[in-house]
Design a protein that fits this description.
The complex is a heterodimer of chains A (314) and B (392). Chain A is of the alpha/beta class. Chain A has 11 helices and 14 strands. Chain A folds into 2 domains: 218 residues, P-loop containing nucleotide triphosphate hydrolases (Rossmann fold); 70 residues, Alpha-Beta Plaits (2-Layer Sandwich), CATH 3.30.70. A 6-stranded mixed sheet of chain A has the order 6-7-8-3-9-10, with helices on both faces. The longest helix of chain A has 16 residues. Chain B is of the alpha/beta class. Chain B has 2 domains: 244 residues, no CATH class; 134 residues, abc type-2 transporter like domain (abc type-2 transporter like fold, 3-Layer(aba) Sandwich). In chain B, strand 1, helix 3 and strand 2 form a beta-alpha-beta unit. The chains are: A alpha/beta (314), B alpha/beta (392). At the A-B interface, helix 2 and helix 3 of A face helix 1 and helix 9 of B.
Chain lengths: 314, 392
């Protein structure tokens, strides 16, 4: 059963088309990710799903409720973790959670109980009385998540919740999200960190320049590029030999599987070990020097690179 | 749903109370400034001007059907005493109102039978109306009338033997009975400088507090917490109501600290009507907060608001009488300044200090509350239009 249906969603700001006809659906209990580089249109899509921006075109339904027609009703079933910290710094963690709980009409013992539960989930029970301003970035992010799950939403929408935090806090957040998903909460997770997405999400939509360029499970996405590994060769100079190198490599790989950008030569191939020595010989034939060689197993970065010709983190 | 507004207001109050710097500005600064200004301009409104005889305005209601009322008004007061006073003619009710409002210190009503009675030696021909303890001005006027009563009939008889002389009262008796002196109770005491500046600075600081509160509101609107609020169960009307209630609570806290503080520390008399002071304070706070919330709904960035807010506060304070006493401005200016929430509040506080009762200030209270609600409605309308344009 689909808990979220997005159909032909579009959003323009003046002449700029931020989101172009995006369609996808998410099943109840699923964890779905929107993956894309900064500025790809992920946050705009999320803002439309949460009822903050009206779409220019298309439709959105959450738990069968039309978000455009009944945003308040639709919002009752979602929790949103924004990209920035949306908390009051001079209030304590407990005060913040109680405040946000009250914004969802929670009160009395029920509120106290759920705040205690959430503090336990985010691992901040012992710091509950401390002001948020005294917290590290990671701890703030945890409270930021806590504030979104107080009303036990059916769908938790997280917009890059781990930006700029230490690895320990990131792990804690990922574990928390995994736990919530295992308990039945539907997760919609946007990120440009492919390793997070690979760890958390069952299905992934890749978004770039406002368009959904691929959507499927990790396996399906890998298969879309033929499960090919990447051979990444760093060259000591850039530009001058690109055309020559491309023509030299024609026998080894098709043109669309060869990318040369700056000082990096990337070649997609199913059996990288088999062509590696020949590849190196061809590249160095005209005196070009190689500074490093790396073989990367097929992953989301490979998929994105193959589809867009750009790195996710550019 | 109403509770969400209350918790939003409570959160704002909690944040302000936690902010020691803001709290100090809220509480200590007004009291300090009132002390400084009250002391610095201490002689300005102490009634010291009554010691020296400055030219003053005399109100006259001349109902006399004979000639002597006109002679007294035009020849004696208007011409002979033109260096001491300026004469203005009124209807009786209008003149009484002017005296009540401290716009006129002394007035006389010359009765219909002034000439006839004076010539007949009868009693009570003119009524002197003044504020209690009007100083030397009333003495001058009453002396002139007494002198006139003693001399004019004799001169008239000598000049015109045709004038009938009735009765046999002596000129001394006539002068004693001539004036029926009335003092008006409504305005008990003139307002002292400390009283004036307590009210004026209090009103100004309340405006500044509202500006600070609205600045925080706009800052919140620019931040992601606002988006999170919009995604929650909070509606726009809940949001604006919560902001308004928060501002009202903070402003009321400050207002009563100023009123009680100036009363206890400086002995400022805010008038006999405690209920009047309380209700006017609440009404002013509603109007100022309504204005603030409206501005907060219209102005989009904190930076823009801070610049406009500070300038606006200064302009409002100046026009409303918080910087220069309203007494020195012409009547029309004083009336126009009542259109500003702070101008209306200050003048009502001054009325209360002068002895106005609770019932006398009800129009001002209703005006203030009405203004506040109107501003709030405009703010809500503005925000809902913005929502239709920007949000789903």
């Amino acid at each position: 059963m689909n808990i979220l249906n997005v159909q032909e969603l579009g959003k323009s700001f003046g002449k700029f088309e931020a989101v172009k006809g995006v369609s996808f659906s998410v099943e109840k209990g699923e964890s779905f990710s929107l993956l894309g580089p900064n500025g790809a249109g992920k946050s705009t899509t999320i803002n439309m799903i949460t009822g903050l921006y009206p779409p220019t075109s298309g439709s959105i339904q959450i738990t069968g409720v039309d978000v455009i027609k009944n945003p308040k009703q639709a919002q009752k079933s979602i929790g949103v973790v924004p990209q920035e910290i949306a908390l009051y710094e001079t209030l304590s963690a407990r005060e913040n959670l109680k405040f946000w709980g009250r914004m969802y009409d929670l009160s009395g013992n029920a509120l106290e109980k759920v705040v205690d539960e959430v503090l336990e989930i985010i691992g901040l029970t012992d710091r509950a009385k401390d002001k948020v301003s005294t917290f590290s970035g990671g701890m703030k992010r945890r409270v930021n998540i806590g504030a979104a799950i107080l009303h036990k939403p059916e769908v938790l929408i997280m917009d890059e919740p781990t930006v700029g935090i230490d690895p320990q806090s990131r792990n804690h957040i990922l574990e928390t999200v995994k736990r919530l998903n295992n308990e039945g909460m539907t997760i919609i997770y946007t990120s440009h960190y492919m390793e997070e997405v690979e760890y958390l999400c069952e299905r992934i939509g890749i978004i770039d320049h406002g368009e959904l360029i691929a959507c499927g499970t990790l396996r399906e996405l890998r298969e879309s590029i033929g499960d090919r590994s990447r051979i990444i060769i760093s060259l000591d100079n850039e530009g001058s030999h690109h055309l020559e190198i491309s023509s030299l490599l024609e026998g080894l790989a098709v043109e669309k599987d060869i990318l040369i950008k700056d000082k990096l030569l990337t070649v997609f191939h199913k059996e990288p070990q088999a062509i590696l020595s020949e590849l190196i010989q061809l590249v160095t034939k005209d005196g070009t020097k190689i500074t490093s060689v790396e073989i990367v197993e097929p992953n989301l970065e490979s998929v994105f690179l193959h589809l867009t010709g750009r790195s996710l983190r550019n | 749903m109403i509770m969400t507004s209350w918790w939003l207001a409570w959160k704002d109050l909690l944040i302000i109370i936690r902010d020691k710097k803001a709290l100090l500005t809220l509480i200590a600064m007004p009291l300090l400034l009132i002390a400084i200004l009250g002391s610095a301009f201490g002689d300005m409104m102490d009634g010291e001007e009554d010691v020296t005889i400055k030219k003053f305005t005399l109100g006259i209601v001349n109902l006399d059907q004979g000639q002597l009322g006109g002679v007294l008004s035009e020849e004696v007061f208007e011409k002979d005493l033109s260096d001491q006073m300026k004469v203005k003619y009124y209807q009786e009710e209008e003149m009484v109102e002017k005296i009540k409002d401290h716009k006129l210190d002394v007035g006389i009503v010359i009765n219909e039978d002034f000439t006839a009675s004076l010539m007949a030696g009868e009693q009570a021909h003119a009524k002197l109306i003044s504020v209690p303890d009007p100083g030397i001005k009333a003495t001058i006027v009453s002396s002139v009338i007494e002198q006139f009563a003693q001399t004019v009939p004799i001169e008239a008889m000598l000049a015109n033997k045709a004038l009938p002389v009735q009765g046999n009262a002596s000129s001394e008796e006539r002068s004693q009975n001539l004036l029926n002196e009335t003092s008006i109770d409504a305005n008990s005491n003139p307002v002292s400088s400390f009283q004036y500046y307590a009210a004026a600075m209090g009103v100004m600081f309340l405006l500044m507090t509202v500006v600070q509160g609205v600045s925080a509101m706009i800052l919140e609107k620019e931040q992601v917490v606002f988006k999170r609020l919009l995604i929650s169960n909070l509606t726009y009307i809940n949001y604006l109501t919560g902001k308004m209630v928060g501002l009202i609570l903070i402003s009321l806290l400050q207002a009563f600290v100023i009123i009680i503080g100036t009363k206890l520390i400086f002995g400022v008399d805010w008038g006999d009507s405690i209920s009047g002071v309380v209700i006017m304070t609440a009404a002013f706070v509603i109007s100022a907060c309504g204005l603030g919330v409206m501005a907060g709904s219209i102005i989009k960035t904190e930076k823009a608001f801070n610049a406009a807010g500070m300038l606006g506060t200064q302009i409002f304070a100046a026009l409303g009488g918080s910087m220069v006493p309203l007494y020195i401005f012409p009547d029309w200016f004083v009336s126009v300044s009542k259109l500003l929430p702070n101008g209306l509040a200050l003048q009502t506080y001054l009325d209360l200090m002068s002895g106005a009762s609770f019932f006398e200030i009800i129009p001002a209270v209703l005006g203030s509350v009405g203004l506040g609600l109107l501003f709030f409605a405009i703010g809500l309308f503005r925000l809902s239009i913005e929502r239709r344009g920007k949000y789903a």
